[in-house]
């Protein structure tokens, strides 16, 4: 097998920062794609970082989780910056005077901008939007239709729509396309704005030597445009309900396992269709990012299938997936496969073989290293260069919070391994991450600000209090960038 061409993010020693767009500073209740995103790129450059890792940027639901979105291709309109609309004379500046700018305010502002652009005198914007819609038609038509129908039916999930719409009857879809034409056009406008701002931000980052590192969950939400539009690619019954769902089996952390509830792929159909679902998915992700993490990579080798009627994951079973055939297909479509395999947890030799046969880097997490087992793969001396290392990820505690939570025995192990450093946490951990053999080292912004566990991004297994953390520039010590740049240079990770 010919391995994919190496990508620039993994071909040499580099360092990056994990920070989701929503965590950027700004007047709204979430960060966005405006000036603060470029300010953050400047901070990365000044500090010697050359990679910015974010979480998925799709349209979120009420819990704001970026891992359960209404589309795997679309962008989240809540990330659209309003200053740009004022600058274009599409929006009155009074919207920016409301403090804070809530999600409701932001959406009202987008509607107001559309009222001006959609029916008035900005013909250039109209032509640009129409060109965008043509270029992205492969996914955008279904997404806009899905969103418009969903709003027309009081946001009911698609499997509760009238049967002709649920089953995508051509005549029923033709009727709603005419009846909901105005709403469909507005949704196209939202996506036009999002991707215009996203690619402006990406271009700025790339020009300054910073590459974007994204995140792509293997499974997708049941109530999403893609499951509705591609029902044949999923294991669903005649009413659109899943017959089996995704999760993981019982383990040390959970006696009943985890029932995620995502519909599972009908891999026989997906493969017979030339994996077109995944070819299209990767196309949009590689346009947004320079490098993409594939969440729950082991699911491409085998996945835990749970009967949909079960409330826990206990009665599931392992089912093989055609991962090798899938990645061979993707390799034929894309000469470069700039992907990272999220290979955390209990990983079998078969999963490792799938990862390694395509030259995909795996992940290492230093917080997982201190089990007392010298064979622990998360100990730095075990890392291969073709890997991405973290002190902790978005699902872990901050380094300070993690260290404070340790019992005295484990804390002593950590101190001894780190050389009984006189530095306070998180710095001994972060310097070990940067010093490790992994070609790409990613640090959490919370760790750079020395924040404790109150500032973690997500606590798995909980539904409240997640995804809302933000930082403020007042938290950034004036000398931080120069200190980071010195260490990044010391460990051979400065950009060439």
Helices, strands, pairings?
Layout: E1 14-18, H1 35-47, E2 51-53, H2 83-87, H3 103-119, H4 123-135, H5 137-152, H6 163-166, H7 170-179, H8 181-207, E3 211-217, H9 225-229, E4 244-248, E5 258-263, H10 267-272, H11 276-288, E6 291-295, E7 302-307, E8 317-320, H12 323-333, E9 339-341, H13 349-357, E10 362-365, E11 387-390, H14 399-405, H15 408-417, H16 427-435, E12 440-444, H17 445-448, H18 480-490
Parallel strand pairs: 1-2, 1-12, 2-3, 3-6, 6-9, 10-11, 11-12
Antiparallel strand pairs: 4-5, 4-7, 7-8
Helix pairs in contact: 1-18, 3-8, 4-5, 5-8
Describe the protein in words.
The chain is α/β, with parallel strands linked by helices and 496 residues long. It has 18 helices and twelve strands. The chain has a single domain (8-490), classed as TIM Barrel. The strands form two sheets. Strands 9-6-3-2-1-12-11-10 form an eight-stranded parallel sheet. A four-stranded antiparallel sheet has the order 5-4-7-8, with no helix packed on it. Helix 1 (35-47) links the parallel strand 1 (14-18) and strand 2 (51-53). Helix 5 crosses helix 8. The two termini are 31 Å apart. The model has no long low-confidence stretch (mean pLDDT 94).
């Amino acid at each position: 097998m010919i391995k994919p061409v190496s990508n620039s993010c993994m071909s040499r020693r580099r360092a990056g920062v994990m920070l989701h767009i929503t965590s950027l500073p700004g007047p709204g209740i979430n960060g966005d794609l405006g000036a603060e995103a470029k300010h953050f790129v400047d901070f990365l450059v000044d500090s010697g970082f050359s990679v910015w890792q974010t979480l998925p940027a799709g349209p979120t639901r009420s819990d704001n989780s970026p891992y359960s979105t209404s589309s795997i291709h679309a962008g989240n309109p809540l990330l659209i910056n309003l200053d740009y609309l004022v600058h274009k004379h599409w929006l009155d500046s009074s919207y920016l005077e409301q403090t804070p700018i809530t999600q409701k305010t932001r959406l009202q502002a987008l509607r107001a901008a559309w009222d001006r652009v959609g029916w008035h005198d900005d013909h250039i914007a109209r032509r640009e939007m129409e060109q965008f819609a043509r270029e992205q038609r492969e996914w955008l038509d279904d997404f806009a239709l899905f969103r418009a129908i969903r709003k027309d039916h009081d946001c009911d999930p698609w499997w509760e729509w009238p049967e002709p719409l649920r089953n995508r009857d051509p005549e029923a879809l033709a009727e709603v396309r005419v009846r909901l034409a105005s709403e469909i056009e507005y949704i196209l406008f939202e996506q036009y704005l999002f991707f215009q701002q996203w690619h402006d931000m990406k271009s700025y980052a790339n020009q300054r030597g910073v590459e974007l590192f994204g995140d792509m969950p293997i499974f997708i939400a049941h109530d999403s445009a893609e499951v509705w539009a591609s029902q044949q690619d999923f294991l669903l019954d005649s009413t659109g309900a899943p017959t089996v769902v995704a999760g993981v089996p019982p383990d040390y952390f959970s006696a009943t396992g985890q029932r995620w509830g995502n519909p599972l792929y009908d891999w026989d159909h997906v493969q017979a269709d030339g994996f077109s679902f995944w070819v299209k998915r990767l196309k949009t992700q590689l346009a947004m990012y320079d490098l993409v993490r594939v969440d729950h990579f082991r699911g491409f080798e085998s996945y835990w299938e749970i009967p949909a009627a079960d409330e826990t994951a206990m009665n599931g079973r392992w089912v093989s997936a055609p991962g090798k055939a899938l990645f061979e297909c993707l390799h034929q479509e894309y000469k470069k496969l700039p992907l990272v395999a999220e290979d955390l947890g209990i990983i079998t030799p078969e999963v490792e073989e799938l990862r390694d046969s395509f030259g995909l880097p795996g992940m290492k997490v230093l917080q997982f290293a201190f089990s007392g087992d010298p064979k622990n793969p998360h100990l730095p001396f075990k890392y291969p260069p073709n890997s991405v290392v973290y002190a902790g990820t978005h699902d872990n505690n901050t380094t300070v919070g993690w260290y404070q939570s340790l019992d005295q025995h484990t804390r002593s192990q950590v101190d001894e391994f780190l050389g009984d450093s006189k530095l306070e946490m998180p710095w001994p951990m972060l310097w070990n991450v940067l010093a490790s053999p992994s070609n790409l080292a990613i640090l959490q912004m919370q760790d750079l600000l020395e924040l404790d566990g109150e500032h973690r991004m997500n606590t798995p297994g909980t539904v409240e209090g997640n995804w809302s953390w933000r930082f403020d520039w007042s938290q950034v010590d004036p000398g931080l960038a120069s200190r980071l740049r010195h260490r990044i240079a010391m460990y051979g990770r400065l950009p060439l």
